[in-house]
Amino acid sequence: DLQICQHRAPTCCTKKMEESYQAAVRRERTQSIQALNFELKYMIVGHITAFQEAFESLLRFAENRTSSLFETAYRPMAKEAAEPVKELFTDISLYILGTETTVESAVLRFFDSLFPLVYSRLINPGITDLSEDYTECLRLTRQDINPFGRYSKNMVTELSKSLWASRMLSQALNLGIEVINTTEHAALTKECSKALVKMQYCPHCQGLTLIRPCVGYCLNVMRGCLASVSELDAQWREYISTLEYLTNEMAASHDLEIALTGIRNSINEAILHAQLNGPQLSATVDKVCGQPRQQGGNLPSDNIVPVKEATETQAFVMAHASLNNKRREFISYMKRSRTFYASIAERLCDGDLVMRDSSTCWNGEDVV
């Protein structure tokens, strides 16, 4: 009653043993593919972590530099500006991670929050009545009167260019993990299970437990079993090319590090522009939002706790170097994995599975 290991000679197998063999080959194939995938997956996961750590380090450095701008140059508004600055860099971090947000919305939301502070602490430092309604009016007016000139839009443009490649790379790395996980759990067809049993276990039914499959026979069986997986070859090669393009984009003219450290200067220029145009802005705001209560003299700034100016240049240089090295290492490794799916059958038939240095092997029917 054997279905797979039918042979002219007497046999020591039963139908139940054949079923056990089918379960065994399914388990072994999954483990073999997982073992092949492990190194590739380990490299991608490792680089996702390394890239993320480097991104976070650069973001922290840029955030501290931006905070120190307010502490040193714009102390009257430093304490209140801390939250908008923090939100801006949180939004940038979330954007890189692939959340549904845009650089433009993050930057413009920051400038919306900044304008009431610039207006009431720098342009008209005597204002005491910053009610919720008046603050909201200032936020909305910012969108119409554009107090920061071209600097807010320039910041959007610069950051969008550099952060786009980082965001795409982050998503691409996660996609790579998804592809590998999917191929690990690709189900074997019944025909494939039978072919693998015939190749690996049918010799056992003749008592030939030390005989292993011939190389050519193994390749034929594996290629048939993994046809659907090896079809990924063209897409995988294209995927590697895309990773190469994205890592080059990150390191090229739209350099992430330069864009992030440039945020401080962009904000400074924007604030200076608003101060220079203070009288015109005041006239427009008075018409739209009305005149708030004034107090003689400047607001006391004793309650401001100064944050130490960022002295993390060394950390930045290290993060910058680390990111560049990680890019080079990663793309070099990934280029070597270009043929990963094309050669999967060859690698599964390598090693202990087949008989290589002997003239005696199993061809599916007999020992040859």
UniProtKB/TrEMBL annotation:
<dbReference type="GO" id="GO:0016477">
    <property type="term" value="P:cell migration"/>
</dbReference>
<keyword id="KW-1003">Cell membrane</keyword>
<dbReference type="GO" id="GO:0005886">
    <property type="term" value="C:plasma membrane"/>
</dbReference>
<dbReference type="GO" id="GO:0009986">
    <property type="term" value="C:cell surface"/>
</dbReference>
<dbReference type="InterPro" id="IPR019803">
    <property type="entry name" value="Glypican_CS"/>
</dbReference>
<protein>
    <submittedName>
        <fullName>GPC5 protein</fullName>
    </submittedName>
</protein>
<keyword id="KW-0325">Glycoprotein</keyword>
<dbReference type="InterPro" id="IPR001863">
    <property type="entry name" value="Glypican"/>
</dbReference>
<dbReference type="GO" id="GO:0005576">
    <property type="term" value="C:extracellular region"/>
</dbReference>
<keyword id="KW-0732">Signal</keyword>
<dbReference type="GO" id="GO:0090263">
    <property type="term" value="P:positive regulation of canonical Wnt signaling pathway"/>
</dbReference>
<keyword id="KW-0357">Heparan sulfate</keyword>
<comment type="function">
    <text>Cell surface proteoglycan.</text>
</comment>
<dbReference type="Pfam" id="PF01153">
    <property type="entry name" value="Glypican"/>
</dbReference>
<dbReference type="GO" id="GO:0098552">
    <property type="term" value="C:side of membrane"/>
</dbReference>
<keyword id="KW-0654">Proteoglycan</keyword>
<dbReference type="GO" id="GO:1905475">
    <property type="term" value="P:regulation of protein localization to membrane"/>
</dbReference>
<keyword id="KW-0472">Membrane</keyword>
<keyword id="KW-0336">GPI-anchor</keyword>
<comment type="similarity">
    <text>Belongs to the glypican family.</text>
</comment>
<keyword id="KW-0449">Lipoprotein</keyword>
